[in-house]
Design goal:
Uridine Diphospho-n-acetylenolpyruvylglucosamine Reductase, domain 2; 2 domains; 4 strands; about 20% helix; about 15% strand
Length: about 120
């Protein structure tokens, strides 16, 4: 999730005039928040954030939001995906089930992988 976040950005709108980090934002103006790059932000204090490490000890990420904007379904989503992956790997393995990932669908806000073949192929 941290390495390749499925939701790349989200939008927020200022409820009042504010000046975060010296940048003036007027009430009602929209902000585009880049979640994909947030997972590599220094604020997470990850060692080597640019590297994909399956066994990373510190697994903090912002893919499901944080604080008051945290996704209430995070744990449910993680459990659903984990259960599906367990079943796929137990039967045939991910690559033989879907085929190799060959890229992403051309969508601006989310990263949906394209596989060599799907369940119906």
């Amino acid at each position: 999730m941290r390495w390749d976040a499925p939701v790349r950005n989200t939008r927020r709108f200022a409820l009042e005039d504010l000046v975060p980090c010296g940048q003036a934002i007027r009430r009602g103006e929209g902000l585009l928040l880049l979640l994909a790059s947030a997972n590599r932000d220094a604020v997470l204090k990850l060692l080597r954030p640019e590297r994909f490490e399956v066994q990373r000890q510190q697994r903090r990420n912002l893919s499901f939001g944080a604080g008051v904007h945290a996704c209430p379904g995070e744990q449910i989503a993680i459990e659903m995906v984990a259960s599906c992956l367990d079943a796929i790997w137990a039967t045939a393995g991910f690559d033989s089930y879907f085929g190799r990932a060959s890229g992403y669908r051309p969508l601006p806000d989310v990263r949906i992988p394209v596989f060599a073949h799907g369940l119906g192929d």
